Amino acid sequence: MMNEKKHVVIIGAGVGGTATAARISRQGFQVTVIEKNAYLGGRCSLLHQGGFRFDQGPSLYLMPKIFDELFADLDERIEDHLELLRCENNYKVHFHDGDFIQLSSDLARMKTEIERIEGTQGFGRFLDFLKEAHIHYTEGTPIAIKKNYASIWDLIQWRFVPKIFRLHLFDTVYRRASIYFKTKKLRMAFTFQTMYMGMSPYDAPAVYSLLQYTEFTDGIWYPLGGFNKVLQALETIATDKYGARFIYNTTVTKMNTKDRQVTGVTLETGQVIHADAIICNADLVYAYHTLLPLCPYTKKLNAKRLTSSSISFYWSMSKKINQLDVHNIFLAESYQESFDEIFQKHSLPSQPSFYVNVPSRIDPLAAPPDKDAVIVLVPIGHMKDDDQTDYGELVRRARSMVLDVIHRRLGIQQFEDWIEHEMVNDPSTWQSKFNLWKGSILGLSHDIFQVLWFRPSIKDVTGRYDNLYFVGASTHPGTGVPIVLSGSKLTSDQVCQGFDRKPLPRKLGEQKVEEDNNLFLSLVIFLLPLFFSLYFFTACLQVMNIKS
């Protein structure tokens, strides 16, 4: 009986579900992945239309070392499965006045570009910015995405205290960028990346400048054939090499429970599939509301902040648009106001910033000859409670604004006439296609009190079920493809521990954070800054009272 394979059911064949299936099937578990849609990848899937191919969601292959680590953990080499193409330019960033900056990993070109806007001292400040981002990356990555926080004591360690200040956890991306860049243009050009995480740069913790660091040092890549090729490779490894099974077009309606166990899942057909453990890759907020018995924690989830949604256009163009690069950013003049409208009013900004991806610029097979596949992502607020929005009208407004910006900034008056075919995702379709709560495309936000231990844990956070685990954007460590891939390692390790199995060692990139067991010292050091802050605040109030 000791060698009997335990059956693990994974709900959802998204990035997290597919990567975790490959990992735990290699660990010797019997794995069944159940996916509601007819295709692999969730948001990381493809759309096809008349010879055109579009990435439905992610299109930026960032932090390549994490992908390398994943395939190495599966006893595979990524180059045996994927052909990765490096983008010559990272982005072409367009400003409201018709000016633009070409961001790349070429420092000589960056020097010219930055000094053109910031003056002769600008490049030195850019290098200082990268030095800080390097600290955020090298010190923040092991803590933020490669360590599990099963309890508060995993967080409260005295060795973390200096890192609170070095990682600028209580500062924002925009404020830190403003220290190094004097012009609004470069402050915008080096902060819009927080939208990868569905956050405003005015709210996102400054540590997330690690994204800019990896862009400039590792570059931006694209898998030939589309981002979904990564998932296809993982599915092949999981099924052909390690015996996992993927079931498509099958909806899970609930997780079955008994005492402190989840015992399996019930399908829409009424069929019950037994499980010794369940890993949920469905949207976490949706799962607690819909697939599990309601509990007080369900209401707590309603109070947590969500990331943005998007209106995404997928345009089949009748000709090549040479003015567009692979990755293009169009920034609104009212930069902060546009983010406020998204995250405070949960609406479409009156002046949206948006992202344009042209996969056919780097992968000719993404479009027929002499034509282009163009994807436009317009960030907007997530759906509201009892949402009554007319999304057809909202899509028309967004489309009109995007076309107007392209006409004015690129001087292409015939652009709309060249659109042969259009597909669209809006908040309501993101919700219906992928069960994304309120159409939030990146799950729970990454506010400082919604990350690390404060984020929903990998193991059932309510403590009701001993064999229920989560992986994906809304659980620890967070959102974004490379982050979720790192999370798949943490989740698979937790499942192994739940069955008293030793997780297989990592093949590459093992990064350990020193543990500290002196809880009293840790508490004292963590609480001292709080006490001093309160003391200082109280003293200031007393001085003000005396003066008054």
UniProtKB/TrEMBL annotation:
GO terms for molecular function: phytoene dehydrogenase activity. PROSITE patterns: PHYTOENE_DH. SUPFAM superfamilies: FAD/NAD(P)-binding domain. The chain crosses the membrane at residues 519-541. Gene3D superfamilies: FAD/NAD(P)-binding domain (3.50.50.60). Its cofactor is NAD(+). Keywords: Carotenoid biosynthesis, Membrane, Oxidoreductase, Transmembrane, Transmembrane helix. Residues 17-493 form the Amine oxidase domain. GO terms for biological process: carotenoid biosynthetic process. It comes from the Eukaryota. The keyword Transmembrane helix applies. Pathway: Carotenoid biosynthesis. Belongs to the carotenoid/retinoid oxidoreductase family. This is Phytoene desaturase. It comes from Rhizopus oryzae (Mucormycosis agent). The lineage of its organism: Eukaryota, Fungi, Fungi incertae sedis, Mucoromycota, Mucoromycotina.
